[in-house]
Amino acid sequence: MKRGVPPTAEKARTGEFTPPGMTAQASSNSRAEVAVAWSTCMATSVPAGLIW
């Protein structure tokens, strides 16, 4: 008895079916997420050596 999902077809993994412009949008979203993560980290961190 076989279970699970069959492997993805070869052509489906090449990005051949990615709509035009989606790669640029994904890059933009990725940069925005990094900026938010960085600013959140900086806003919540305490400088080294600072003792309360």
TrEMBL record:
<feature type="region of interest" description="Disordered">
    <location>
        <begin position="1"/>
        <end position="28"/>
    </location>
</feature>
<protein>
    <submittedName>
        <fullName>Uncharacterized protein</fullName>
    </submittedName>
</protein>
